Amino acid sequence: MKGSKRLWYWLIGTNVILFGIIAYSAIAPGALTKTILLPGETSHGHYQIEMRCDVCHTEGNGIREDACLDCHAEELRLAKDTHPSSKFNDPSNADLLNVLDATNCLTCHREHVQEQTLVMGLTMPADYCYHCHQETLETRPSHADFAFDSCATAGCHNYHDNTALYENFLNKHAGEDDFLAEMVGLARSSPSPPTASQLTQIAADAPESLSGDAAILDDWASTAHAAAGVNCSGCHATEVLNESANQTTNHEADSASDEFRWSRTVSLDTCGQCHERERDTFLLGHHGMRLAQDLPAMTPAEARIPMHVDAAHRQLDCNACHSGHRFDTTYASVEACLGCHNDDHSNAFTQTSHYDVWQQELAGESPVGSGVTCATCHLPRVEDDDGNVWVQHNQNANLRPNEKMIREVCMNCHGLAFSIDALADQDLIQNCFATSPSQHIESVDLAKARFDEKQRKREARLKKK
């Protein structure tokens, strides 16, 4: 009888514990145990934040219709979205919307349906373009033999971002050489320095108890920070707003003054005071998107592509690539990437001509900025509307679809047709563009032929007059 009671107590206790775990998983925003409640695998673009269900879902488990735009609105604006929802508000499109509701992101982009999810996170059949564009087969003789599910073939059409694929652009750049005579590069704009004078080790204003490490001071004195007049306190001294803040800091610190407190660690927001765009775009990419949702920093161990085992538990914040005090952009351009990434594309980089010209630059045999690195392509320098040049830190901004790389990356060195061919060649992507493309995409040819035909007809009409 006593044995039966013990068994019942054990079963009751076990059930209480399990219920507690499930309840905690359902309530806690970032609980690791939340994954046991997922209805299916999350897509490649969102799996890192799957523990924050509330980012996309309401409390009643419905999907917030504006959740997608919370993260992607600016990206769509910059891409001049070719299919914005407003485009389909015209009542004449009502019949089309019955077939495919193009006003709703969730029509194409859904989570937790792995068996229906394509590489880019689409859950639609590949022939979705055909529902609205059936007339193309009649109005474009050049497309008559194309399969109706081939519209989004690499180098042809993208749903949202066609900034490098629209006909006028294709025609404008027809006939370009595969390799440009000169690399087109952008010089990065420096943040406004707090002082105009370069600082040396002697000028370091760290507290005496922390300023005895000569190696740290030497690293700092050799950086652009010191050259721009950014002293130790510029990153490490945080303002104390009240007495309670003095008493509740989590950092091991020394008091620098009554108004500031010295912090051994530097927050992302501190970096963002001078590097705002870099910080904001970092939070949109795979490296930083977890931090944007108040989750622990991403680690290589959580990636879905091969990573080096010894890098598994590195936390991906600014210092993961820009090592503390030195902030070496040369290191961040290649070594930082290859220190974590262990996929075929990354490992092949050192066997390419891109890597060779990078080594020539480092050796002083080629001009500064002539080398090609991982960062050149995946963290490119871009220019804003005001003419300021900064580094795009959202490495996903030019990955899927990869034609988004064409204008900001590929065409700095290559002609448009060559760029399209290269990005459509999967084998070439795997070997990190170590050779020339093995196939040719007809996008530029078709656009040029169409404009040439229009010109011939125009000239024929003029002759008749």
Automatic annotation (TrEMBL):
GO molecular function: heme binding; metal ion binding; nitrite reductase (cytochrome, ammonia-forming) activity
Entry EC number(s): 1.7.2.2
InterPro entries listed in its UniProt record: Cyt_c552, Multihaem_cyt_sf, Tetrahaem_cytochrome
Cellular component aspect of the GO annotation: outer membrane-bounded periplasmic space
Protein location: Cell envelope
The keyword Metal-binding belongs to this UniProt entry's keyword annotation: yes
Pfam families xref list: Cytochrom_c3_2 (PF14537)
Cofactor(s) needed by this chain: heme c
Reactions it catalyzes: 6 Fe(III)-[cytochrome c] + NH4(+) + 2 H2O = 6 Fe(II)-[cytochrome c] + nitrite + 8 H(+)
RNA-binding found in the keyword field: no
Annotated Tetrahaem cytochrome domain residues: 46-134
Location (main, coarse): other
Primary enzyme class: oxidoreductase
Superkingdom of the organism of origin: Bacteria
UniProt keyword annotations, A-Z: Calcium, Electron transport, Heme, Iron, Membrane, Metal-binding, Oxidoreductase, Signal, Transmembrane, Transmembrane helix, Transport
Family: Belongs to the cytochrome c-552 family.
Protein known as: nitrite reductase (cytochrome; ammonia-forming)
UniProt source species: Aporhodopirellula rubra
Upper classification of the organism: Bacteria, Pseudomonadati, Planctomycetota, Planctomycetia, Pirellulales
